[in-house]
Write a structure and sequence with these properties.
2 domains; alpha/beta; four-stranded antiparallel β-sheet; six-stranded mixed β-sheet; disordered C terminus; Rossmann fold
Length: 262
């Protein structure tokens, strides 16, 4: 699904965030990207979304080199990205309106894309039908996030990219939406990449966890989504391990390049 080979990226006048970075994601996997502030979590997500381009190296998704935003990738941001003057129903259908405007051009809309009026379906699935005519300012944070999810799923994506989507929500709402997202990912056979700074969220969402703090490390988490996972010994073992790894992280170096030893 995703293949990153020898990626180098940095912002002007700064040390590269990524240098010779390699990463592979198989279709249907759920990945959590974890790391301290400034390690490049959100930058990596924007690279996957085609909103940033590498200085060197290649990003391929489904065998095609990524050079612009990809029509079948869905991006959900921390601030929801809802239009304040549009209702929940109108926000949920915004992506389909944009696709209908461009037609099947292969850039803004996938080739052979068959638009379907599935907005009402997702409003029902996500418990939004009763508030469909309200505006974002009139609903809760959890409902706004559900609206953003409905807008994305209405476009039938195969890759779901999420940038700390639940960080501003209360604990109960956050856990409910985490479980909902995992169930939708499984139901729709999506590949999920979620960025988070919270260890508990990474363990709750990712069957694999990419720790970007140098050097980059991958942690397996096969029990994610299972009943009582959060109270299991494996959950607490992995949580303690990640705490220790992040607490003793050495001075920052570009992801993909380990520090040399004298």
């Amino acid at each position: 699904m995703i293949n990153i080979n020898s990626l180098t990226f940095g912002y002007p006048q700064t040390t590269p965030i990524f240098q010779n970075f390699n990463w592979t994601v198989q279709r249907g996997e759920t990945w959590a990207i974890l790391g301290s502030s400034g390690c490049g979590k959100t930058t990596l997500l924007y690279l996957l979304a085609g909103l940033r381009l590498p200085a060197k190296g290649v990003i391929e998704i489904d065998g095609e080199r990524l050079t612009r935003p990809r029509p079948r990738s869905g991006l959900i941001l921390q601030d929801y990205g809802l239009l304040p003057w549009a209702t929940v129903r109108e926000n949920a259908g915004l992506g389909l309106e944009v696709r209908n405007f461009y037609g099947q051009d292969g850039k803004h809309t996938p080739k052979n894309f068959q638009p379907e009026n599935n907005v009402e379906y997702w409003l029902n699935e996500l418990g939004l039908h009763e508030i469909a005519d309200k505006f974002p300012a009139q609903i809760s944070g959890g409902q706004r996030q559900r609206t953003a999810i409905a807008r994305t799923l209405a476009l039938s994506p195969d890759l779901l990219l999420m940038d700390e989507p639940f960080s501003s929500l209360d604990a109960i709402t956050r856990e409910d939406l985490q479980k909902l997202t995992l169930s939708l990912v499984k139901e729709q056979n999506l590949t999920l990449v979620i960025v988070t700074h919270a260890i508990d969220e990474a363990i709750s969402m990712g069957s694999k966890i990419l720790l970007l703090d140098s050097p980059q490390r991958i942690f397996e988490n096969p029990q994610v989504g299972q009943a009582n996972h959060r109270s299991s010994q494996e959950y607490h073992r992995l949580s303690n391990l990640l705490w220790e790894e992040m607490r003793h992280d050495p001075s920052p170096t570009p992801a993909g390049r380990e520090e040399s030893t004298p």
